[in-house]
Amino acid sequence: xxxxxxxxxxxxxxxxxxxxxxxxxxxxxxxxxxxxxxxxxxxxxxxxxxxxxxxxxxxxxxxxxxxxxxxxxxxxxxxxxxxxxxxxxxxxxxxxxxxxxxxxxxxxxxxxxxxxxxxxxxxxxxxxxxxxxxxxxxxxxxxxxxxxxxxxxxxxxxxxxxxxxxxxxxxxxxxxxxxxxxxxxxxxxxxxxxxxxxxxxxxxxxxxxxxxxxxxxxxxxxxxxxxxxxxxxxxxxxxxxxxxxxxxxxxxxxxxxxxxxxxxxxxxxxxxxxxxxxxxxxxxxxxxxxxxxxxxxxxxxxxxxxxxxxxxxxxxxxxxxxxxxxxxxxxxxxxxxxxxxxxxxxxxxxxxxxxxxxxxxxxxxxxxxxxxxxxxxxxxxxxxxxxxxxxxxxxxxxxxxxxxxxxxxxxxxxxxxxxxxxxxxxxxxxxxxxxxxxxxxxxxxxxxxxxxxxxxxxxxxxxxxxxx
Amino acid sequence: xxxxxxxxxxxxxxxxxxxxxxxxxxxxxxxxxxxxxxxxxxxxxxxxxxxxxxxxxxxxxxxxxxxxxxxxxxxxxxxxxxxxxxxxxxxxxxxxxxxxxxxxxxxxxxxxxxxxxxxxxxxxxxxxxxxxxxxxxxxxxxxxxxxxxxxxxxxxxxxxxxxxxxxxxxxxxxxxxxxxxxxxxxxxxxxxxxxxxxxxxxxxxxxxxxxxxxxxxxxxxxxxxxxxxxxxxxxxxxxxxxxxxxxxxxxxxxxxxxxxxxxxxxxxxxxxxxxxxxxxxxxxxxxxxxxxxxxxxxxxxxxxxxxxxxxxxxxxxxxxxxxxxxxxxxxxxxxxxxxxxxxxxxxxxxxxxxxxxxxxxxxxxxxxxxxxxxxxxxxxxxxxxxxxxxxxxxxxxxxxxxxxxxxxxxxxxxxxxxxxxxxxxxxxxxxxxxxxxxxxxxxxxxxxxxxxxxxxxxxxxxxxxxxx
Lengths: 468, 468
Hints:
The structure is a homodimer of 468-residue chains. With 468 residues, chain A is of the alpha/beta class. The first copy, chain A, has 19 helices and 15 strands.
């Protein structure tokens, strides 16, 4: 039997456990540090900010599998399993001998994979008896996903949305409001950190780091409230492992195994989830699959950042994480469309990259939209700009196969749909989109504001990959 | 084994034939009339406007099944089968003993079921060697669907988009442009009929009937070009039968059969497709399933229209069809959000309704959006306003079951998603949405302009249902 276009697992094949990649990492990433003491953050340090269960997951380096709570399993059944799709028509259009597969996480109303972690996080919050949550959102997928989960579990939610995105995507805001959440463009006057940033940069379009600061400040000052985050954190990668586990089960069902796995990388939630079981194979030396992170040239944390301790937010109120970073004060150019605008990168992925288990490339957004339009015309799915970064690199890989004749099996993550990104598409179609490539001195300005962490300074270093 | 939330057929179970309900109708609807002769339209009359194969399908009353061309079958595999979903969480929220299922056609980039017919129509156009097509679009789903199919088959496309919709949904326009089609707000200066309408009503928001006139005029004046339509026509209902056939196969697979099938009705494309196999059962007296059409109170063609011959377009250049109509000059109030704004109704459905095989109800749009928001919060899918008409009535049926204790099985069609309708959602959430109910004299004005068709006048009559 030939391989179908869309491979759907049965409902009972949806994974019932999350996979914690840290249990298989030969070396752990450096610990989060409490910014007031420069000492490793403890469970007690994290509890005022995060739900208890999520704080535990954040620090757990040994539990290989976590049971997915039953109510979360039920929630997943409303939108999972997501299809693994064979890109027959894209292959044909490219004339490549490569086989291209993509795991499509966009067929839910949040328009992305973010709902996977939102469902889990809101469940744990509800279990703990919390009554409200705060978060930030950039491109808007995470805010939408969380508003959906909060509507379902009946929890109040305040979303700080990066102001530039809020202005560019008024309808994304409306969707979040439809699900009953409050949405506040960030920076705002509702927090001390917001007021301070507005004072210094009254016209700023905001940044994810800044929105995080505001959401955390509000959470710790509100009774029975916690902050939740849609990327970067270990807990999020844990929940998103469902993407990779499902992808692998679907590929197993058709006797396929990828030669290369490609994912877009902003904070790392999709990439970390998609690659999880393949990275496990690689760490256990069962496979030499290539794993490729794709990021925008305009926000190149892996390819041009430094592997050092830094704040996770612009307001410098979160714990310090050792990660690839452009500096917490870095804000991508206003020309940059869509998400993937975070200054740092998941500590887990940063460590794996630093240790050579993963590659990274950066791509220009005009090339990304070129790939997005080509993909849409042949595969009939309008991709999110973020996802289109992975499409760009998958196409580049497939075209390389066309040159060499190699019949590679390519798997990439199609994280979401672009229905709320039409302003960016219009700008591209009108030939008005530009590519911003930060100069070395632009980046230096960000690096100059990195925190001085004496206790771990000696172990920090510039990335060996930073020049690739 | 319990019934899963989402029932997906296997790829090889996607129907390979369309079902033509006319082959089983005890009486045929009255024939289309050539407006210049008042005589039944012949194949030769239709060929200048429609592709040859589609013109044939339009007139065929005896062929029960049409093979779906192989390339169209392949195209379908990119987005079909669509899921049949058990609304477990909506049932729970309502506390109803009813079982609610919905066939979800919105998980493709057109955001609706319209892609089913677009794929077929563009295939036939390509086979015939045509180089371009024209069409109209109201809410935008049809225009998007057709632009997707034209991009795939590499045919030029001009879309006349109802001006009010184009202004309310600028991003819908961008999506259509992303797939390479030209889009022109209607009425426009590009056609004689458009110029004439603009002269009389310079500020009009346009109507579907008017956009049809413009698209037809352009098609017949352009070499190697034809007009295609996304609803109303018999050929469209034929293609859309895939919705019903797939729904029935999925319900069969879990040993279910609906007591009531509910679909929203504008021109009838979704409703006619969804109900096709159930209507067959009913016509053959194998089932007494109830079939319910839901329309807006602001555009009540079935519930308050007349069953007479009328033009299919505002410009009066198309054939005359006997159907439930508000008069081809009827334009729904500007307050009316979304689609379902056509003045008439599929001749097939009109006949079935007239002969008592089908019920019809009309619903207010504020009640429709109330249902849409409730549905979104519990089922995690943001419905299109059009689809939410069916949700409203399904909820009403389920609540009736709650009163009576009946464990009915309800099936409704969720035709699409509402990502491009956020302006309407925002208006609803802000309490600014109003309900427009046309007065009898409003409707009388439309009826007064009905054509005087001497040859068939005696057989036309006011609907026996028009007062229900």
